Amino acid sequence: MSDTDGKKPLGLGGPRSGQVKQSFSHGRTKNVVVETKRKRVVVPKPGTAGVPGAAGTASHLGDPSKRPAGISDAEMERRLAALRNAKAREAGEALQRAAEEVAREEERQRKREEIEAKEREERERAAAQRQKVEEEERARALAEVKASRAEDARKPQVTSRTQSRDEAPGRTAAAAVQAPASAKPGLSPRKTDREREERDRDARAKAKGSEDVRRAGKLTLNDALAGEGGRTRSLAAMKRKQEKARQKAMGQNMRAEKMVRDVQLPETIVVQELANRMAERAADVVKALMKMGMMVTMNQTIDADTAELVIEEFGHRAVRVSDSDVEQVIDQVQDSDENRVSRPPIVTIMGHVDHGKTSLLDAIRKTSVVSGEAGGITQHIGAYQVTTDQGATLTFLDTPGHAAFTSMRARGANVTDIVILVVAADDAVMPQTIEAIAHAKAAKVPMIVAINKIDKKSANPAKVRTDLLQHDVVVEQMSGDVLDVEVSAVTGQGLDGLLEAIALQAEILDLKANPTRAASGAVIEAKLDVGRGPVATVLVQNGTLRKGDIFVVGEQWGKVRSLINDKGERVDEAGPSVPVEVLGLNGTPQAGDTLNVVETEAQAREIADYREKTARDKRAAAGAATTLEQLMAKAKADKKVSELPVVVKADVQGSAEAILQAMEKIGNDEVRVRVLHSGVGAITDSDVGLAEASGAPIIGFNVRANASARTSANQKGVEIRYYSVIYDLVDDVKAAASGLLKAEVRETFIGYATIKEVFKVSNVGNVAGCIVTEGVARRSAGVRLLRDNVVVHEGTLKTLKRFKDEVKEVQSGQECGMAFENYDNLRAGDVIEIFEREEVERRLA
Questions:
Q1: 386-402 per-position pLDDT tens digit
Q2: How far from chain centre, in Å, is Cα 343?
């Protein structure tokens, strides 16, 4: 064979297996058809005629004119024969491949049909078997019931025969043969009857059918009391078992489809909790985390981003949630107009201290609250409800006027509808009056000016109206839009006019609320009562607060155990604009917190825990130094400033807050007051222990120490001071803080002396002979040595002599001898300056 035998000429390549169908559609060649039951395959017939283009190629090569040069006829014939063999071989291979494909397809189809037939036969066989078993059970049960009934029918005959046998003991065995076959020899009739009853009971139990079978796994009250049986499989487990058996019998033992879940994902989550939310095994979750390069256990916490990757890997959906989402359960519905009804107005009385606010409210309520106030001033915020002679209901808030109670006045202005600004007619606009005006403007509530003490001879209401102009308060008599009324809390003058002005202003505001929704309100005051626990004075702003409601207020939560109105009466509910005392809190809330009613105790507890954690983080962030420079500056400042530590306990939360604010204002760059702890309620042993550890006094405002705390304080030497007026408290703390200030040293110049000559005295040193030119020279005074008006030494005198005698002082114009302590460099002509130092005690302003 030549070197061209293994190569195919251009255009002479054989057809591929995927081109067999196309190869016979062009020529008139005969083809081979391979037919089966389901497939028909046509392939070219082996040989030259079945190969398209072979004849044209042969004729092309057989033409001598077109034959390549140098090729003989024998060589050409040999090449044509090789070409025909190659084409025939390729056609045979294509035919063989087609036949094998057909055979494989038939084999697959046959197997499928066999499997389907087998499954169908198994299903039919299982159904027939179940039907046969059920029919046998029914037939057996029916036969047993019939046998039992027949035996019951023969029972009287057996009984009579037994009696006759007992009467005639000599009876022959032939009579015993007539007894029923079921009566076994040696068994008494009573035992035979018991066995028959047991068989009847078993037969009836089997005849009950599927209903009893289905209820067999349920625990009844009788079974539980009898203590029989034990833990049985649930109905759902039995159903799952039957379903698995049915699928196995039908050949459908396939795995259940995976359920995709929405997994709620907080900021951080424990691995075990993540697995529970995905309904996956914790070991699988840990394994997935280890594949991600995190060596964690199921009890460790991971961040939200990592947890989201794990959730996506397991095929679930991550739903990001925030810790603040717990507060979304608080009802924030929008009230419709048809649900809103009129409510009483909330009126806050504000003004300067001792301008007659509480006395004015007493005159309206016809009570005497001011007589019970310590020092004659209001130190708490009070809430009252008054019904006027015209039948209108008004809610009043009485706020303190002292400078320390700024937060109380701000809270009163924020929850109110109308502000009554009380100004004494014999006084003028004072600092707390200006502050009350600012609070009212900030809260954007209307204002009514009540000019009190109009009955006094020194009353000058015109001056009050003029002073109010400086603070942009223009009353009606000055052509303004602010109502003003002249009243007297002592004589009752102008009270009717004040109530009419309040009613007019309330009618203009058209105050409405929805009493049917969940209650919400504001905490006016809070305290810790010894007998009742934490008590909060709440002003309901919307909805109705009922006994038994679960609520959350600030960082605390609770369940309404009791509601007490302003008259001390227990009530079952409180509607909008009604002030009540609420009992049932788990802790004392902060004054000014908002109360919201929630549905469940779990929600209230979760919200309270979240708020407490947030507040704790804020306090930690506020007290921490963020940079090294801030840390160093804080340490340097702490070294310079002296601190007076105190422990404060008050009767109500508002008073404690006011005392804290007053303590913060006491001090300067050298000294400050540090409140270690503040709270409400009686002084306890824990307060005494804290005060002893820090060397701080305990300040009790309208509270006392219990017996145990008093004994502990006496043993440990802890000072406890009681106060009922905030003036005295602030003054005493300020005086105590002033004691930490360094005394101011003042120098007083008392004389000058000039050195005339310097003498050297043995055992003494250099002694200056001097003449006192001005003032007096004292032995105990300090001295400075001036040389050319420059201070070269400052110290004290070692000796002061007049002639040979030691004297205490030398008057002006007299000569004396002076020797300095530890200094001998004295020269004639130097000047001695004589002075005295005086320490003056400093006080805080």
A1: 887 777 788 888 776 44
A2: 34
